[in-house]
């Protein structure tokens, strides 16, 4: 079963393919994805790498956590499920609506 890793501290210029190639030193990489900002289209500086076995994932953590990659120090650990967040609120309450005076 594949194990997903969180990879933080990535340089903003890093591409998915470079991340996959780097982590392949620890074993078989199922996927490597860098998270992009929806508005700007730029990297958010973190991503996820899926290793094919838990043993390879542990090896990747040992090899790459707190190590330098393209000039930045990485944080690598097992990914946790995304926590539920409350709905966003704020901004203008009646934006675009008719105002009554």
Terminal CA distance reads 62 Å
Structural class: alpha+beta
Mean pLDDT: 89
Based on CA atoms alone, the radius of gyration comes out at 18 Å
What is the helix content?
10-25%
Q: What is the fourth-level CATH superfamily?
A: RRM (RNA recognition motif) domain
Q: Unreliable stretches, pLDDT < 50, 5 or more residues?
A: none
The coarse silhouette is globular
Count the helices. How many?
Answer: 2
What portion of residues belong to β-strands? Answer: 25-35%
What is the makeup of the main sheet? Answer: 4 strands, antiparallel
Order of helices and strands: EHEEHEEE
Key features?
single chain, 101 residues, alpha+beta, Alpha-Beta Plaits, 4-stranded antiparallel beta sheet, two-stranded antiparallel sheet, 2 helices, 6 strands
Explain briefly what this protein structure is.
The chain has 2 helices and 6 strands; from the N terminus they run βαββαβββ.
SSE blueprint:
Blueprint: E1 3-8, H1 16-23, E2 29-36, E3 43-51, H2 54-64, E4 68-69, E5 72-73, E6 75-78
Question: What do these coordinates show?
Answer:
By secondary structure, the protein is of the alpha+beta class. The chain has one domain (3-77): Alpha-Beta Plaits (2-Layer Sandwich), CATH 3.30.70. Helix content is 19%, strand content 31%. The chain has 2 helices and 6 strands; from the N terminus they run βαββαβββ. It has helices spanning 16-23, 54-64; strands at 3-8, 29-36, 43-51, 68-69, 72-73, 75-78. Strands 2-3-1-6 form a 4-stranded antiparallel β-sheet. The protein has a two-stranded antiparallel sheet with strand order 4-5. The longest helix is centred in the middle third of the chain and has 11 residues, at 54-64. 18% of the residues are buried.
